[in-house]
Amino acid sequence: MTEDKYLTKLAALLRQAESTENEHEAEAFMAAAQRLATATSIDLAVARAHAARKERRAAPIAKRIEIGPPGKRALRTYVQLFLSIARANDLTCDLAGNSTYVIAYGFESDIEVCEALYASLVVQMVRASDAYLRSGAYRREAHPVDERGPDGRWRTVRKPVHGITARISFQTAFAGRIGERLAEAREQATTEVLKMAAAEMSSTTGTQLVLQEKALEISDFYSRTSTARGSWRGWEGSGRSSTLAERAGRRAADAARTTSAQELPGRRRALPS
Length: 273
Description:
The protein is mainly α. The chain has one domain. It is built from seven helices and five strands, in the order H-H-E-H-E-E-H-E-E-H-H-H. The protein has a three-stranded antiparallel β-sheet. A two-stranded antiparallel sheet has the order 4-5. A hairpin with a 5-residue loop joins strand 2 and strand 3. Helix 2 crosses helix 6 and helix 3 crosses helix 4. The longest helix is centred in the middle third of the chain and has 39 residues. It is globular.
């Protein structure tokens, strides 16, 4: 399957996910989309490996992807969502210290898939998070807080979870669960491709070797290209979190759809306000 035909088929799956009101069907279409992305990525890797020496082979690229403006609250949860998708699609990423952008390293087709999935899922994440905050359900949970009383002495009181704490907990859990779902779909797709290779070639060694070579090629490109220093630590706030918001975030991720087929291949929506 050529890259254009593959993107067209992926777009069709996304349209089907968008049009159905059945959560189980939406889940199936999402899994199918990720399996297609994985299988096609493997096919393209095999094709690259078998290309004639005189032909110009595709090579890994580095692409900067804007996440959001400096100072936007919970911006790191957007980065966490992008990383969850990137890991399932053979990308290595460098992250800005202020979480305003990421630099993705990998093959162009994989980056396009990652951007398309992110463009849809980030909108769903923010909408679901906004709806949860409007419900006020997080206020049923309280945290112990140390404060100075009227007599000047310190005391511990219980106060409702703050809205920003609830949002960060919700969106962090959403991103994590999306990563789990995509990883499961990727594993299934890889298993299916290796089974097909075994049926056609009586051995999966060749395909496995190509996948290893692809990973090494990206790793080598990253080591030669990246100038990143230090490590990204995700969300570092007060250390507080909301269990209720985390549970709601995972439920929202379970119901999330991969939509916005018109964004393919590679266009991105603006960051939700």
